[in-house]
Amino acid sequence: MRPVLVIVLASLLAFGAGASRADSILAMNPEETFETREQLVRYEKMINDLRCVVCQNQSVAESQVELARDLRRITRDMILAGATDAEIKQFMTDRYGDFVLYNPPLKPITYLLWGAPVILLLIGAIVMVSVVGRRSGESEDDAEGTGEHS
Amino acid sequence: MKSFKYMLPAVAFFVLAGFLYVGLFLNPREVPSQLIGKPAPAFDIEDLRQPADRFAMTHMLGSPAVLNVWATWCAGCRQEHPFLMQLARTGEVALYGMNYRDERPKALDWLRRLGDPYISVGYDPDGMASLDWGVYGSPETFLIDPQGTVVYKHLGPLGPNVWETEFRPRIAAMQGVSQ
Q1: Chain B residues touching residue A95 (CB < 8 angstroms)
Q2: Which CATH number does the domain housing residue A57 bear?
Q3: Distance from CA of B89 to the nearest CA of A (A)
Q4: B34-178: which CATH architecture?
Q5: What is the distance in angstroms between the Cα of B80 and the nearest Cα belonging to chain A?
Q6: Is the peptide bond before B41 cis (omega within 30 degrees of 0)?
Q7: Contact at 8 Å (CB) between A55 and A68?
Q8: Residues of A whose CB is below 8 A from B132
């Protein structure tokens, strides 16, 4: 009985937290009302993925700069008008370039950016293999050496 | 070969230090404009000085034009203003203005006190026309060719150095083509 109660209470809490988060966003920007929950989720994801070009280390969601406020309004209007996420991103990059996206697209100029983790991992692997290989070789030598001495 | 191996950490250090050193002097605020080489975004907004008139992008066509985005709350705009006045006197290029997220009385007062270098000034209080131009800070100055293609954008106060190195050669190239 008890575990069931815990699960019920926990899910209630989780749901309550989720709902209150959405409510607080609506309370913060009363004009930002959506017809469906799905639209609100898309809106939140979109404005968190956009960089505020004025205050560069904040997202459009976090910034209270006028331009960020306008971009939030435009995002909302586009979602309400039925625009897809790709269309909204296109609108933003047409004006501010890929720089505005926190998640830059994969294309020739960003190959190095996206490839860097793999390249660094490979370099690390090569170094590790060579060092470990040499060490195990040395320890064998040592073993032989000690064998000779004893 | 063995000595090269010992050098490797030092080489890696200097490569990294080199990148960081260059990075020190880059301006992270300078976001490359998406508009370069593209048609100037259309707008048709109220004229700042004559509210009954309109100022449209098409007004700037036909000769090399400079569009200066400014506001009275912007310190860099104040800084570049004397240079704009000087530029207007030389008549080297058609200079237009876009008053960005500002209030008309303040903007008019600014032009009265400091001088008015512009042929026309658009009034963009909500910043929506400027948004299409990718404006995110002021001052920003665009160079537009006679056919309406954006050729260059400068972020920050305009001055003789930038004018000499970036604007003048591009304007000369346009005039070379049109002649």
Answers
A1: 34, 131-134
A2: 1.10.8.640
A3: 32
A4: 3-Layer(aba) Sandwich (3.40)
A5: 20
A6: no
A7: yes
A8: 95
Q: Give yes or no: residues A133 and A78 share one domain.
A: no
Give me the domain span that covers residue A132. Answer: 106-150
**Residues B45 and B122: beta-carbon distance below 8 Å:** yes
Task: Identify the closest residue of chain A to B131 by CA–CA distance.
Answer: A95
Domain identity same for A100 and A113: no
Query: Can you give the pLDDT of all 179 residues of chain B as single tens digits?
Result: 566 778 888 999 999 999 999 888 877 666 667 888 899 999 999 999 999 999 999 999 999 999 999 999 999 999 999 999 999 999 899 999 999 999 999 999 999 999 999 999 999 999 999 999 999 888 999 999 999 999 999 999 999 999 999 999 999 998 875 54
Distance CA B41, CA B80 (A): 25
Residues of chain B in contact with residue A93, where contact means CB-CB under 8 angstroms, are 34
Domain co-membership, A96 together with A42 = yes
Closest CB from A70, A95, A97 relative to B32 = A97
Q: Is the distance from CB of A102 to CB of A49 less than 8 angstroms? A: yes
